[in-house]
Amino acid sequence: MRNERQQIQSLVKDFSSRMREKLLKKLGRGWRGWENDAFKRKLEDDILIHLRLALQGDASQWVDVANYAAFLDYQSRQATTPHDGPDSDEETAGIDEELADTEDNYPCEDCGAPRTKAQGGTIFTVCDDCWDKHHAATDTEAKL
Prior knowledge:
Blueprint: H1 4-28, H2 40-55, H3 61-79, H4 89-92, H5 95-101, H6 128-143
Helix pairs in contact: 1-3, 2-3
């Protein structure tokens, strides 16, 4: 019989492998932006949705809960780590204007439809319609 240390090592190896597999699959489908602090609120909302589903008996949701927890952990650690940024007002002059000019300038890679930051333009490479069109069959097959 294996000792507890070996059981934990095996458990972590198996679970982290499933986390990695799921993340790489999502990455291949164009899912991006988890490290973006602007995405934090969505991550917080989504982890609660997946946690609720897992607690209601959908065991497949635990990997998603763990992945969202990893994203949020990464963001919280980054928030406490000093970063290189502009040191003076001169270096930041004009940044707000530049951002305002590009607010709606996040085109979908498939159809070119402009999207705002609030619509996920800074996070996702394709719009919701294109995502659904390209991945609806794949997502349905994955659930079977």
